[in-house]
Amino acid sequence: MTESTAIDVPVIQLRPLRERKVTKREYDRIVASIKAVGLIEPLVVFPENGDYVILDGVQRYRALVELGVAIAPCIMGREREAFTGNRMVNRVSPVQEHRMIEKAMDEVDEGVIAAALGIATLNHRLKKSLLKQLHSDVATAYDAGKITRACAREFTHVKPHRQKEILRAMEGYKDYSTAFARSLVVKTAANQRENRGRKHNPWNKTAQRKNDLLKKLSDAEQKHDFYSQLYKQYTVDLLRLAIFARSLLTNARLREYLNKHHSDIVSRFETIIADARG
Question: How confident is residue 91, by pLDDT bands cut at 50, 70 and 90?
Answer without folding.
Answer: very low
